[in-house]
TrEMBL record:
Domain of life according to the entry: Bacteria
GO biological process: phosphorelay signal transduction system; regulation of DNA-templated transcription
Coiled coil residues, start to end: none
Protein name per UniProt: Putative DNA-binding response regulator in two-component system
Domain Sigma-54 factor interaction: 153-382
SUPFAM superfamilies: CheY-like, Homeodomain-like, P-loop containing nucleoside triphosphate hydrolases
Species of the source: Nitrosomonas mobilis
Classification via PROSITE patterns: RESPONSE_REGULATORY, SIGMA54_INTERACT_1, SIGMA54_INTERACT_2, SIGMA54_INTERACT_3, SIGMA54_INTERACT_4
Modification sites for 4-aspartylphosphate: D62
An annotated Gene Ontology molecular function: ATP binding
Keywords: ATP-binding, DNA-binding, Nucleotide-binding, Phosphoprotein, Transcription, Transcription regulation, Two-component regulatory system
All copies of domain Response regulatory, residue ranges: 13-127
Length: 466
């Protein structure tokens, strides 16, 4: 990359709005000389068009403009992007309006003619709010490592850029975070970004899918158990909360956690202690909890499936991850990013997607979101015999992917059945040996076999026939 491009990509972005083009150009030149990346708009309407495309770190707008004025522009920005700071430039006669605007949430105002030093000071303070850069104090963990915390999140979407600002602000605090979004939107990616952007980034980041582990195992996985706690507990086992000590734990699909375990999780969060299964002693914990769900937890509370008190413990800060349909402008960017990744992984010389393939991606529904898009691109890369991915390959991969996607519950049942069959084959139908390999007692193992209607005696006859 050209060094000047690198400087521009790292520069803080400011959107200037003024219908006086001479003043707009003068202010633009002044701020560019101070190292800022400047975009100009000669009207509030033009400014809103810019904001639809990309998100600056700061908006500076004149208050008196034709059609939509600076205050109306601020109201529009504040409604859709409340974390984006706005500075208003005002003439002497409109100072009372500007003061009232500050009370309504505007970042600040400057009177014309403004003092350049005061302007730069205001901008620097606004950048602190927008990007977490703190002036005059020791840099936080987030900023001492630049943008490393979000390096795996690929986007050019304004809605995503706004979300990333919120993520950075949230990361620097230690509050519990609840992420909501459809399956496949990348909730774990955002949970990891929150952890990486926090002061806990050097400590463990531990994940668990609450829907993927049977209820009788989940408590032990979270809180651990002591030797002899149950059949098969031959040694002490540290739970994930202990493994995450000093760091963060990500509880994915928290909406599927059984009610009895919700009570124990609530106690752990309230008292900052856990009690391993079979133990009489509490263990203190210092762990940040980040949770996620695709369910409407308020609806789950109404039906009695989720505890309201636990919800408010988890929902100190809530962030919604947009679906791929809400960030369509990211589809070509993500598709090309995945293309490079999978071309390298599968050692194939593939350079690009054809324009027709890109257009097909843009017009396709994505019920599986980014996970589905990634799968489609990998299938296309694997099957391609030329350097450019064709529309036919993409179309075929999407249709195959649609037929292959099954519900999580179906996938789990299939895995569990295949696992049991494999154990029975290995042990030739010896339930005692199979249960030992699975680290389950015989009673639990028989229940699993009955659930999947597996007849262990058939595998004994297999041994005789062999």
């Amino acid at each position: 990359m050209d060094p000047t491009q690198l400087i521009m990509s790292n520069a803080k972005k400011i959107l200037l709005v003024d219908d006086d083009t001479d003043l707009l150009e003068l202010l633009s030149m002044r701020l560019k000389s101070s190292g800022y990346h400047i975009t100009t708009a000669a009207s509030a309407e033009a400014a809103l068009n810019h904001l639809d495309i990309t998100r600056p770190h700061l908006v500076i707008s004149d208050i008196q403009m034709k059609e939509m004025d600076g205050m109306a522009l601020f109201e529009q920005i504040h409604r859709t992007t409340p974390t984006l700071p706005v500075i208003i430039l005002t003439a002497f006669g409109t100072i009372p309006d500007a003061v009232a605007a500050v009370q309504r949430g505007i970042f600040g105002y400057l009177t014309k003619p403004y003092d350049p030093k005061i302007l730069l000071s205001q901008i620097e303070r606004a950048m602190t709010l927008s990007s977490g850069v703190t002036s005059g104090v020791q840099p936080s963990a987030t900023n001492s490592r630049g943008n490393d915390w979000k390096s795996n999140i690929v986007t050019q979407s304004a809605i995503m850029e706004d979300l990333l600002v919120k993520v950075e602000l949230v990361a620097q605090k230690d509050a519990s975070v609840l992420l909501h979004g459809e399956s496949g939107v990348g909730k774990e990616l955002f949970a990891r970004a929150i952890h990486q952007g926090s002061n806990r980034h050097d400590q463990p980041f531990v994940t668990i899918n609450c829907a993927a582990i049977p209820e009788y195992l989940l408590e032990s996985e979270l809180f651990g158990h002591v030797k002899g706690a149950f059949t098969g507990a031959v040694r002490d086992h540290a739970g994930l909360f202990q493994l995450a000590e000093g760091g963060s734990i990500f509880l994915d699909e928290i909406g599927d956690m059984p009610l009895l375990l919700q009570v124990k999780l609530l106690r752990a969060l309230q008292e900052r202690t856990i009690r391993p299964v079979g133990s009489n002693e509490d263990i203190s914990i210092d762990v940040r909890v980040i949770s996620a769900t695709h369910k409407d937890l308020r609806a789950e509370i109404a039906t009695g499936n989720f505890r309201e008190d636990l919800f408010y413990r988890l929902f100190v800060v809530g962030l919604t991850i947009p679906s791929l349909a809400q960030r369509q402008e990211d589809i070509p960017l993500l598709a090309n990013y995945f293309l490079r990744v999978f071309a390298q992984k599968h050692q194939k010389s593939i350079n690009a997607l054809s324009p027709e393939a890109t257009n097909f991606l843009l017009t396709s529904p994505w019920p599986g979101n980014i996970r589905q898009l990634m799968n489609v691109i990998e299938q296309s890369v694997v099957m391609s015999t030329i350097p450019i991915i064709s529309e036919e390959l993409v179309r075929d991969a999407i249709h195959k992917d649609e037929t292959q996607i099954s519900s999580f519950e179906q996938a789990r049942k299939q895995f569990e059945r295949e696992y049991l069959v494999r154990l029975l084959k290995i042990t030739s139908g010896n339930v005692t040996q199979a249960a030992k390999l699975a680290k389950r007692n015989r009673t639990e193992f028989y229940k699993l076999l009955n659930r999947h209607q597996l007849d262990y005696s058939l595998y004994k006859s297999q041994q005789v026939n062999a």
